[in-house]
Structures are given as structure tokens and as C-alpha cells.
Amino acid sequence: YVSFPMVMLAKSLKMVPIMLMGKFMNNSSYESYEYICAATVGFGLYLFLDSSEHIDFRENVFGNPENVTGAMCGVVLLGFFLFFDSFTGQWQSRMFQLNKSMSPLQMMCIMNAFSAVFSFITLVHQEQLAKSLLFVYDHPTMMLHLLVFILVSTVGQLFIFYTVKSFGAVVFAIIMSLRILFSTLLSCVVYAHPIQELGLLGIIIVFGANAYRIKMKLKGQPLIRWKEESEHSGQIFKEWHEHLDI
Question: pTM above the 0.90 mark?
Fold first, then answer.
């Protein structure tokens, strides 16, 4: 529905719904520079969206299928993703506050178990379970790909927890911002996504605002926080949902 660079830039806007959800659910307070950065990211995203995605807001998905790109539907789906993802992070933080003995690994197990059950129910309800299993049966190499994906995803999540817990949230934010930047640029080069001048300016504004926000969060503290200064479990999940783009 929308290009990969658009998805990456939209996920950079996660700070906006996270701040709103945090204010609503946990009465959290934020620094003035965070509101400024959020507004700047939104402006940069608008520039990219307007110049590179060619979305006509007067167009609906029930028109001529040959003229409808589905980009508007993609934007709506991204909006739903940002809303529910921001809710998840804030709700997890509240669970850690209410259950002091809960560990990050226990939370990860609970979340993954719920996702598996929810996906199973969805497949059954939409009558896609048998088709999915038949596809895997007809393509045995699919099992190898699934196992590799599961292994890499699990190890990746463990590295995320270790990074935030051992080196602090700022280091993790820097790593994820650089990852999003390089993924966006690589996608533009490899798949030849057409980026106009205003779209390029939007990319620069988005990542410039994120870099400034990281700089302000780093103010008055060392870049690397070692293990004895480890983060609380709730903080780990807060930073995970705020910066992770998966």
C-alpha cells in the first residue's frame, strides 16, 4: 500500500502516540523539546508523504481499481499500528509497576503466547488455517525459513533487552535510529523508490529531529551506562516500543 521508506518514516513518528498514550494512561510528563521534536517529525513526514507517495485524499478505494494505488489504505493501517503499539508499551509499563517481581522475559513470553493464540483464532475464523498448513506441506523449505526467522527474531529480542539493560536507553535509541536511516536509504537505492526533493528534505528533517532528541536525552549523562546502572524492566519495554521499528 505504501513504500518501505514511508513505513520507516512513519515509525519514527511513534513518539507522538506514545506521548499521548503515556499522558492519558500513566499521567506521564515530557520535556518541551520532546513536543518540538514530535511536531518536527510530523512535518517531515508530511513533506515526504505529499511529495513521494502521491496520495489524493479525495480518492476512495471504491473507485476505478486501475487508478487507486491503495496508499490511503496504507496510511490508515499505519495509523492503527502506531495507536495499538503505543498502547501496548504504556500498558506493559503499568504491568511492571503493579507487578514488581515480573521480569522482561516473563513479559515477552506472555506477549508472544497471546500473539500465537490470537493469530490461531484469526486463521480459524477466516478459514485460512488449512490453506496455510497446506502451503507449508507443499513447500517443505518453508519450515527451514520459519525456523531461521524464529531463531533470529528471538535472539534479536534478547539482544534488545541486553543492550537497554547493560548500556542504557540512549545507546539503544542511537542504534535503532541509525538502523532505520540505513534501511530507508538502502531501500531507496536497491528498489529505486522515487524520492522527490521535498521527500528527501522530509527524510533529513525526520532524522535530524530524532538526532536532536537523542542529544537532549544524553545531556548530563554518559553515553554508555554499564550494567551496575541497569534499567528497570518497565523502562526497558518503554524504550523498546518507542524505538523499535519491527
Answer: no
d(C-alpha 91, C-alpha 26), whole Å: 9
Give the whole-angstrom CA distance, residue 164 versus residue 21: 22
What are the pLDDT digits (tens) for 65-124?
445 556 677 778 888 888 888 788 778 777 877 888 887 778 888 888 998 999 999 999
Q: How distant, in Å, are the alpha carbons of 112, 114, 234, 236 from that of 107?
A: 9, 11, 10, 11
Residue 37: what residue type? C
61, three cell numbers? 478505494
CA dist., res. 158 & res. 232, Å (int): 15
Residues 6 or more apart whose Cβ sits within 8 Å of residue 172: 160, 163, 164, 239, 243
Among residues 246, 240, 235, 133, the alpha carbon closest in space to that of 180 is found at 246
Four-residue CA torsion sign, 172, 26, 93, 43: negative
5-25 confidence digits (pLDDT tens): 777 777 777 777 878 887 887
Exposure string (b/e) for 100-117, b if CB count within 10 Å is 16 or more?
A: eebebeebbeeeeeeeee
With cell 528498489, the residue in question is: 191
Contacts of 245 (CB under 8 A, 6+ apart): 8, 11, 176, 179, 180, 183
The beta-strand segments (E) located in the chain are none
Amino acid letter at 12? S
